[in-house]
Amino acid sequence: MHVRRYGVAVVVLVGFLGSVELLRHLAILPISIAAPSEIYRTFLKDQEALWYHLQPTLAAAAIGYGFAVAAALGMATIAVLVRRAEGVVYNFAVVVYSIPLIAAAPILLVWFGPGGTVRIIIAALAGFFPVLVGAIQGLRAVDPRAAELFHSLSASTFQQFRLLALPSALPYVFAGLKIAAASAVLGALIAEWVGAEKGIGLMMAYALFSFNVAQVWLTMFVSIISAILAYALVGLVERRIIYWEHIGHLQAD
Amino acid sequence: MEHQLELKSVAVEFPLRRERLRVLEDVSLSFDEGEFGAIIGPSGCGKSTLLRVVADIVKPVSGTVSIGGRPPAEIRRHQMIGFVFQDATLLPWRNVIDNVRLPLTILRDHAQKAERSPEELLDLVGLVGFEKAMPSQLSGGMQQRVAIARALVLNPQVLLLDEPFGALDEITRQRMNLELLRIWAEAKTTALLVTHSISEAVFMADKVIVLSARPGRVKVEKRVPLKRPRTLDMMRSQSFFETVNFVRDALFGDAAGAAP
Asked: How far apart are CA A221 and CA A223, in angstroms?
């Protein structure tokens, strides 16, 4: 079942790459689209450079992600536990979300100077909103019958939060965490375009300005894969923590 | 003699848009300690609301409720109410035994409580061996049995059941009725069951209360003349038949003369 699903995907992918390769050879596709074989050759040539540039990007994304998650979870908790706070928190989050990161980056660069800080901040800004929304929605998505149950047992607000709201929220929180992981990677990239000493975004910008088409595509693929892997990694953690959703049935009554 | 559970002229209103909807009107009833009561009525008559008034989940707009001489709020604060919902409402992230233990986790005053052991209760409801199972692995009937065990773990003064077997098929339902009677006889709490089924009400209860349509008023109170312990055979008896008819007439009485 798994094999079959992946089998189809692999076939489609290979077919697609094959077609692109062929069309490039026949010069039907424009030069701005690199043939897969070219990209592969560039990959072999630039491997060291890739690893060299990938590390600072991913490191910054991870640190920024950490800050974003901490801030978002903290603010979501306040939003739910303190009555008037939710509106304020949401408004703040929407403002943060609406900041065009590519414009914010140069401003922050002037403020904080070159070095990794700006990259971490932008990554954090990118990851903040999804986690916050996931957490607030999750904490509110409590089964009303279960809430009645806790009320009939005279549970305190904190008990209801700890024993009911938190576990109920986890699926939603993880949805936000997964999206934010990918966003943090892409946020770090954006920051690098504006000014950085090293990083995949820098390598991509450099390739763009030197019209190295294959390398542009290569760095783009590497970025995409990094974002997807970040997403998948959080997904793995999710499967460990949310253990109760994936069980089948034992027997009928 | 003071009744264990007593409601006097209870009325309940709910705000609905700009109006206030009168859900229960002038409801008075009483039960002695250890009695089993059934409440039945048409949809929307407020029977579930009545249960929630006793559990202090809903506050009446007038009238008094007393449980063992004390108001529901006090009984609830002392965690002496056992509530079983129509869908078992088990916490999906806890296994069976931890779900039964939930009230113990929330319990504040350990010294004052005569608790029952979760293991014993699981034995009582017939789920030995399923302690570590997760709720999603259990059938509906099994989940309800866990919910009943959970409701009994703090030795409640009153056991409230809101159509607990409504979602089950007829066969399972009859089996669960017998199970519940057996469990209740052992636990010896006062019990109040809300149900849609006339035969269930008569089979289970010492006293059946029929509510009218909204606003719910007590139409009739009928003592069930069947001995305990109840057996399925009794459902063939004349007494059972007559009592069911009595309740049915009370329920459909207004429409008796109307043409279909």
From this structure: 5
